[in-house]
Design a protein that fits this description.
The structure holds two protein chains of two kinds.
Chain A (H helix, E strand, L loop, with lengths): L3 E4 L2 E5 L4 E7 L4 E9 L5 E8 L4 E4 L2 E6 L4 E6 L8 E9 L5 E3 L3 E6 L1
Parallel strand pairs in A: 2-11
Antiparallel strand pairs in A: 1-3, 3-8, 4-5, 4-9, 6-7, 7-8, 9-10, 9-11
Chain B lengths: L3 E4 L2 E4 L5 E7 L5 E7 L5 E9 L2 E4 L7 E2 L9 E3 L8 E8 L8 E2 L3 E5 L1
Parallel strand pairs in B: 2-11
Antiparallel strand pairs in B: 1-3, 3-8, 4-5, 4-9, 5-6, 7-8, 9-10, 9-11
Classes of the chains: A mainly beta, B mainly beta.
């Protein structure tokens, strides 16, 4: 059974810092991995989608990497801003299912 | 603009009432999903659909039901709301089996009093 773990559960950093959020999954047979952002009480906003054949994706200050063999993905946020404060969720689409399996998220606070 | 819409955004309703949460998408996606999320907690899949007239129960048992009569529409119904149904309900869709990611709606926050 696929399990997704995110570390750390919470993170507080001063504005301007570069930071890394970690995601690990137990079964390397995945179709893709998706990073989402969720603001309190809101829906999910897709940040980056990495296909199983890809190693990384970039969008603005965000860079996500994928290492299937080790079951790991990282989300790198450069020059963090207070507006980046949110919960960041990692999710994998398993090989034999349409379903997304979510991690429990990392709550990020960027202090001005 | 292609998107996925959920209504209402917030709903406060009395115990025993029947409610329907609406979800519509304009992207022509075949696959649609309902997730339930309690505050600060993980998302749990409660229903999904592969296409018209196809519905399946998800990983988390739910007293709600769904229907998929049209590709773009995937409503969720609670026949008799209870306080234990208080939660956030998130609808999502995806285009094909492997390649495309999920697109989520803004969610419906349901409170049953």
């Amino acid at each position: 059974k696929q399990e997704v773990t995110q570390i750390p559960a919470a993170l507080s950093v001063p504005e301007g810092e570069n930071l890394v959020l970690n995601c690990s999954f137990t079964d390397s047979a995945i179709y893709n991995l998706q990073w989402f952002r969720q603001d309190p009480g809101k829906g999910l906003t897709s940040l980056l989608l990495i296909q199983s054949s890809q190693r990384e994706q970039t969008s603005g200050r965000l860079n996500a990497s994928l290492d299937k063999s080790s079951g790991r993905s990282t989300l790198y946020i450069a020059a963090s801003q207070p507006g980046d404060s949110a919960t960041y969720l990692c999710a994998v689409k398993a090989d034999s299912s349409y379903k997304l399996i979510f991690g429990s998220g990392t709550r990020l606070l960027v202090r001005p | 603009e292609a998107d996925i819409y959920q209504t209402p955004r917030y709903l406060v309703i009395g115990t025993g009432k029947k409610i329907t949460l609406e979800c519509s998408q304009t992207m022509g996606h075949d696959k649609m999903y309902w997730y339930q999320q309690d505050p600060g907690m993980e998302l749990h899949l409660i229903h999904y659909s592969y296409g018209v007239n196809s519905t399946e129960k998800g990983d988390l048992s739910s007293e709600s039901t769904v229907s998929r009569i049209r590709t773009e529409h995937f409503p969720l119904t609670l026949e008799s709301a209870r306080p234990s149904h208080t939660s956030q309900y998130l609808c999502a869709s995806s285009a094909n089996e492997g390649g495309d990611g999920y697109t989520f709606g803004s969610g419906t926050r349901l409170t049953v009093v």
